[in-house]
Amino acid sequence: MVDQHNDESHQSDPTRRARLRWCARRGLLENDLIFERFFSRDEHGLSDADVAALTRLLELSDNELMDLLLARAEPEGDLATPDVARVLQMLRSV
Question: Is the pTM of this model over 0.85?
Answer without folding.
Answer: no
